[in-house]
Amino acid sequence: MTLTQADIDREIAAEHAAYEKRLADGGPVEHQPRRDYAPYRSSVLRHPKQPLVAIDVSKDPELVELASPAFGERDVTETDNDLTRQHHGEPIGERITVSGRLLDRDGRPVRGQLVEIWQANAAGRYAHQREQHDAPLDPNFTGVGRTLTDDSGFYHFTTVQPGPYPWRQHLNAWRPAHIHFSLFGTAFTQRLVTQMYFPSDPLFPYDPIIQSVTDDTARQRLVATYDHSLSVPEFSMGYHWDIVLDGPRATWIEEGR
Amino acid sequence: MTKIDPSRPQTVLPTPSHTVGPFYGHALPFPGGGDIAPLGHPDAIALQGRVYDGEGAPLPDAFLELWGADPDGELPTTDGSMRRDPASGGFLGRNGVEFTGWGRVQTDADGHWSARTLRPGARGASAPYLSVCVFARGLLVHLFTRIYLPGDDAALAADPLLRRVDPARRDTLIATRDRSGTYRFDIRLQGEGETVFLEFQ
């Protein structure tokens, strides 16, 4: 039987209700998705069923995971954060500027650290061989960028607005437009890969990936804010998106890198 | 809201994780991602393994990041893992001399990955290990595990993590050495032989 959007909608609603009940029963706010979130079918065989083994990092300052790999100026080039300038011609689409700060749980900026992004083009097509969506490729857009955060933790990208795209999990499944982000902190424990969305996307309620974050407030933190001050006159629309890394760091280090 | 005001700590809440999806392959992997060991280094080791799902099927769309200390137990602060070429816009690759301690490797169509790095030295009370972070389509939050190397039974027996884990599952954290001297470390995301995964608090 074909899996329909209505089937997935029911599952999303049930997961949301289950979370609300956990909260009402005194459970903690869940900032992260559960790995066993079945409305996203690919998770079903790819999540551990045994409980994770907890490691209290305060007990051992020597843990490898409390340091982070380093990246520097030679790991990025000048055009890496401008996805509209990586080919001979201009990509098709609405140009956007995306900027924000990378922070740790204490609100401290993460400085000089690597931010990587990837996205579909304006038509909703990835420049990836296994992509099956038959929207047009753009010869002037690869959709890959990287940068280092500055001394205040800011990152900055220029790109084009990605399109939504169908993804075949169920009949008429569409992903809301998004940009993938990969982030490092000052500790490897803070590693994060996530997706940034755009304000008021009508696809949010239908998408089991964004809905895997069942906490309504946490889910809002994945959505960028339109910021007119980041719009560049005669050039681009501006979006602001701050990122807060989860996971412990070495608390006895007073200064972040 | 996604403008965070650090002067109001109650607004500083974590950004949720999401899956890497299926289409990171033209973005995150880079040439020489697994060639972490400097060329010709006497302490280089080779590692390989497969990543499996809950039905024992290999994952063709996962990647691992490896992070570890140098042979003296020092954590590298050297950048240059993914040196870029400003002339071509491509990758220069590692310089083959410096050790960054970090690498990124994809699984192939058989779910197989491999890497060469330096044998890590011990730090603190732990036996030597490499930290591993696993990403895949379908995995909503990445998973951490560790690769311990076999050989020093006393160090492994004294390791604070290995002492705590269920003895029946302890071996999922320890690589095996095959006849060619390569270390083998398979990762099972679910089911029989499920790898021990870690949560840092």
TrEMBL record, chain A:
InterPro entries: Intradiol_dOase_C, Intradiol_dOase_core, Intradiol_RC_Dioxygenase, PCDO_beta_N, Protocat_dOase_b. One of its GO terms (biological process) is 3,4-dihydroxybenzoate catabolic process. The keyword Oxidoreductase applies. Residues 98-126 form the Intradiol ring-cleavage dioxygenases domain. SUPFAM superfamilies: Aromatic compound dioxygenase (SSF49482). PROSITE patterns: INTRADIOL_DIOXYGENAS. Gene3D superfamilies: Aromatic compound dioxygenase. Belongs to the intradiol ring-cleavage dioxygenase family. This is Protocatechuate 3,4-dioxygenase subunit beta. It comes from Streptomyces humidus.
Automatic annotation (TrEMBL), chain B:
The keyword Oxidoreductase applies. Keywords: Dioxygenase, Oxidoreductase. Belongs to the intradiol ring-cleavage dioxygenase family. This is Protocatechuate 3,4-dioxygenase subunit alpha. SUPFAM superfamilies: Aromatic compound dioxygenase (SSF49482). It holds the Pfam family Dioxygenase_C. GO terms for molecular function: ferric iron binding; protocatechuate 3,4-dioxygenase activity. Residues 44-191 form the Intradiol ring-cleavage dioxygenases domain. The keyword Oxidoreductase applies. It comes from Streptomyces humidus. InterPro entries: Intradiol_dOase_C, Intradiol_dOase_core, Intradiol_RC_Dioxygenase, Protocat_dOase_a.
